[in-house]
Specification:
This protein folds into 6 domains: 2-91, no CATH class; 120-177 and 383-418 and 432-487, P-loop containing nucleotide triphosphate hydrolases (Rossmann fold, 3-Layer(aba) Sandwich); 188-378, PCRA, domain 4 (Orthogonal Bundle), CATH 1.10.486; 514-551, no CATH class; 587-632 and 727-900, no CATH class; 635-724, no CATH class. 42% of the residues lie in helices and 11% in strands. The strands form 3 sheets. It has a 7-stranded mixed sheet with strand order 3-9-8-4-7-5-6. Helix 23 (608-616) packs across helix 24. The chain is elongated and about 120 Å long.
Length: 900
């Protein structure tokens, strides 16, 4: 008590007041005789809506002691005794009929509703959204029938954080006037969340995600283009504002020289130069946030960031701009900033430790302050249906009352142990007269609050949820009267013809479902009559539904549902989602076709990777190679498989180029020593060029893994070639680059003459044993080599194309094959295809068919039979299909264009 007394005296000296002691201060003023002056000299004081004494014991005792003013305290006629109010029994008068009360004590029997004569309806609902929609419908029915005025209807929730938000929005969507007091934690106010975003970025030393979140935030006008930051992040991981500045400077020559690394990213030199200038201005604001400082200095800096001179990146100006007339967001932002400034100024007046606090520590501390304080805003107008918290609705009469979220542990709310005392210790201290609450008293108060809300003369509707957002079953409150569980609303949202739509969304859903039912009838006798609230939305829904049917193979699982059942046997009709069609990647606009013909002309330089990408997934090819769209991704912390393969390939290329003329039969000590030197040289050169190889600590481990894998591969291959009598004769054979024209000619899958210009690099060309003059194309793979059947639908093409290029140069080709660096000898020769065999010729024919199909605009979202959808493909919500060919290939299908 001495410590608490000293604390209060310290606040009084500073002119401050602990909000928790407001009732105690009022009681002191009443004891000092200040009550008559406070109420303007009135002789009587009537006090309403106190359902429980809680923290008001001292002020009520002071009112009882004073004699200048006659005080009338109106209490609910309770079924459970309250020890404090029972002490006032000699001065208690029951107003109105005692109902079912006992004549002995004047108190009703039982623990249910008291004093209210209105009927009670209990409605179980599947979830919060369905609950609010049901309440909005019932409220609108009451108002439309004239049974009550809007202000005579109340929606009551125990908590005001979530439920009042939901109820108010549901009423507004239904066109019902409403008023509410909306509680929002300060850390959920958009403008203050933006401030926390800046401090979090400083605490994380401005990694890519935190910097991008700042630059993309609508509240901050930084004038830095995200494309530059995204391009840098895709190349390497950058941390720190100084490093980002250097990365932007390094980006300038890449854009100027049109380097391969930034091709297709929409970067222009003038824009990058503006970004460099804007980023310099950005650093002037953000650099001071990087230093550790005392708590008081952090408060001063935060106040400066919120300053009246338009604030951080003109924050104060931008929060005044509404989005789609949502002025409540503007009010919330402005009031939230003002409230935070007041809290910070009060905090600044306290004593603070001098220890320096890092940015991450200040971000955490400020976050706790914002989380612990609320912004309470009343909706404009103050008229309409009352959306209230339970303590505001207690003992207030309404013509119709709706109690929502009446679930166990929600209303009544179960109190948890707080402070240093256990519940048993609290009971003992309360028995000694200290004003401490314990669990039984808390639950009794909650039950009293329930009765104070529900004892209404008019009808009372109580709703509770049977599941939470994750599908976990929920129980009703113990205070909910007995009812039929079967009364729960249906879990499937299906519009009913018996109920009129309440919101525009319901009217649109009802119209769409009427069309759906009509389409399900084989021979409808009449067209459905619909009355959508927004016809344009229903029209778009019809188009979207047609598109989904033609590009989503999911309907194949339900034969006959909106589509005729597929005919049995091998000749059955193919679902439209497996073919190019206007809804599934078939581009038919003449201007688009002309652009495709211009870009992918007969002299267009193809690579084996491009052809394989199209053969596996034309839609992915459209997104990545035609539209040049890329996901916003950051470079991996670990070395990517692409980098692993690139480094390993270069080591192998240098090794065999050096030892080709004097190929050792085994990995002798001197050869192994030279291999180690080559490996060190390759890795050092990659690091010197600034290539992103992964986080430094991880790269050291990965580097050892690459060197070991290459060493093991060479050790195995030297022995294998010695046994077979094979030897490499060329490495890194490039063709089709610069002005060289490497053309493949033949016929496509339809028997038409076709040509294909191609470029690439062959990892190695080997010669057969005994100088027979038969050569083999070899391609290294860091992972698993493609099996030979992948050539059957062009999912794999590289080996065949490379072998044909060398054959056209006069080499007597024997085969194409792959070998795994990580798994030497397993398989011995993966994807082996012999020159001139049927599989070889068919793969070459399919490759020659791809350019014409691209120029015809065929980009269906269907993966090849031997391929698969990969994690880096456009996600399902973009491609809208998981279709995969079950047999054959796609190259004889040009959609609805006859003959291609």
């Amino acid at each position: 008590m001495a410590v608490y007394r000293a604390y209060r005296n310290s606040l009084r000296e500073r002119g401050l007041l602990d909000p928790r002691a407001v009732n105690a201060h009022i009681a002191e003023r009443i004891d000092e005789g200040a009550l008559p002056a406070a109420i303007g000299g009135a002789r009587e004081l009537h006090v309403y809506s106190i359902a429980s004494p809680r923290t008001r014991r001292r002020i009520l005792a002071a009112l009882a002691r004073q004699e200048e003013v006659e005080v009338h305290l109106y209490l609910p006629l309770e079924a459970e005794p309250d020890p404090y109010f029972d002490a006032l029994a000699d001065r208690t008068e029951i107003i109105g009929a005692p109902g079912s009360g006992s004549p002995e004590d004047g108190r009703p029997r039982g623990g249910g509703r008291v004093g209210g004569a209105g009927p009670v309806q209990v409605q179980p609902v599947p979830d919060a959204a369905r609950e609010m929609a049901w309440v909005a419908r019932r409220v609108k029915e009451v108002l439309a029938s004239g049974r009550a005025a809007p202000h005579e209807v109340a929606i009551v929730a125990r908590s005001g954080r979530d439920n009042t938000h939901r109820a108010y929005r549901a009423l507004r969507r239904a066109g019902v006037p409403a008023t509410a007091r909306i509680r929002t934690p300060l850390d959920e106010v958009p403008a203050l969340r933006a401030l926390l975003l800046v401090l979090r970025g400083a605490g994380r030393n401005w990694d890519y995600r935190s910097l991008r979140a700042l630059l993309a935030h609508p509240y901050f006008d930084t004038r830095v283009d995200l494309r530059s930051i995204d391009a840098i992040a895709a190349l390497r991981r950058v941390v720190g504002l100084e490093s980002w500045t250097g990365a932007l400077e390094q980006l300038r020559p890449l854009v100027e020289n049109k380097a391969r690394e930034v091709r297709g990213r929409g970067l222009f030199l003038d824009r990058v130069e503006k970004d460099i200038e804007a980023f310099g201005a950005l650093r002037e604001v953000l650099d001071p946030l990087a230093d550790a400082r005392s708590e008081a200095d952090w408060i001063d800096l935060t106040l400066a960031l919120l300053g009246e001179d338009r604030g951080l990146f003109r924050l104060r100006r931008r929060v005044c701009d509404p989005v789609e007339e949502r002025w409540e967001v503007v009010r919330s932002d402005q009031r939230g900033i003002l409230l935070l400034e007041r809290l910070l100024r009060e905090w600044r007046e306290l004593d603070h430790p001098d220890d320096p606090l890092p940015p991450a520590g200040w971000h955490a501390l400020l976050g706790k302050l914002l989380q612990a304080n609320e912004l309470v805003l009343s909706t404009p107008g103050q008229k309409g249906v009352q959306v209230l918290e339970a303590h505001d609705a207690a003992l207030v009469p309404f013509a119709h009352t709706f109690v929502v979220h009446a679930n166990d542990r929600e209303f009544p709310r179960a109190g948890g142990a707080t402070g240093v005392f256990t519940d048993t210790e609290r009971r003992r201290l309360a028995a000694l007269g200290l004003p401490l609450a314990h669990r039984d008293e808390t639950l009794r108060r909650e039950r009293g609050l329930w009765r104070a809300v529900t004892q209404q003369a008019g009808p009372v509707c109580i709703s509770y949820r049977t599941t939470d957002a994750g599908g976990t079953p929920l129980l009703p409150s113990l205070m909910v009267p007995s009812h039929e569980d079967a009364a729960e609303l249906p879990r499937i949202r299906r519009p009913s013809d018996e109920l009129d739509p309440v919101t525009p969304a319901e009217a649109d859903r009802r119209a769409a479902f009427a069309i759906h039912r009509a389409l399900g009838v084989p021979d409808p006798t009449e067209r459905p009559r619909i009355a959508p609230a927004r016809p344009e939305r229903v029209a778009r829904a019809i188009v979207a539904a047609a598109a989904e049917i033609h590009r989503g193979p999911g309907l194949e699982r339900y034969p006959g549902f909106l589509l005729p059942a597929p005919a049995p046997g091998p000749g059955r009709a193919v679902h439209p989602a497996f073919r190019p069609n206007p809804w599934n990647g078939h581009l038919r606009d003449p201007d688009v076709i002309r652009e495709l013909e211009r870009r992918f002309h007969d002299d267009y330089r193809w690579s084996a990777g491009q052809l394989e990408a199209y053969a596996r997934s034309p839609f992915t090819f459209l997104v990545e190679r035609v539209l040049w769209l890329e996901g916003v991704e950051e470079a991996e912390e670990e070395t990517t498989p692409l980098t692993f393969g690139s480094v390993a390939h270069e080591i192998l290329e240098r090794f065999y180029a050096e030892f080709m003329e004097r190929l050792p039969v085994a990995l002798e000590a001197s050869v192994e020593h030279r291999l180690a030197e080559i490996s060190d040289e390759v890795c050092a050169e990659r690091a010197e060029k600034g290539e992103w190889l992964g986080v430094a600590s991880l790269w050291e481990q990965t580097r050892e893994g690459i060197v070991a894998a290459v060493r093991n591969y060479i050790e195995w291959e030297l022995g294998h070639m010695a046994r077979k009598g094979e030897c490499p004769i060329e490495t890194e054979v490039g063709f089709g680059f610069d002005d060289e024209r490497a053309m493949l000619a033949g016929t496509d899958i339809r028997g038409r003459a076709a040509r294909l210009r191609i470029c690439g690099r062959i990892d190695r060309l080997d010669r057969d044993a005994g100088g027979t003059g038969v050569f083999h194309v070899l391609d290294y793979k860091s992972g698993k080599p493609p099996p030979a059947p992948r050539f059957d639908d062009a999912t794999a093409l590289q080996g065949v194309l490379y072998a044909q290029v060398m054959a056209d140069r006069g080499y007597a080709m024997g085969s194409c094959r792959y070998r795994s660096i990580r798994s030497p000898g397993s398989p011995l020769n993966g994807g082996l295809v012999r020159f001139g065999e049927e599989r070889y010729e068919r793969a070459l024919t399919m490759a020659l068919s791809i350019p014409a199909r691209v120029r015809a605009g065929c980009f269906e979202a269907v993966v090849s039979r031997k391929g698969d959808w990969w994690s880096w493909d456009p996600p399902r919500e973009v491609r809208r299909s998981d279709a995969q060919l079950a047999e054959g290939h796609r190259f004889d299908d040009f959609g609805d264009v006859a003959g291609g």
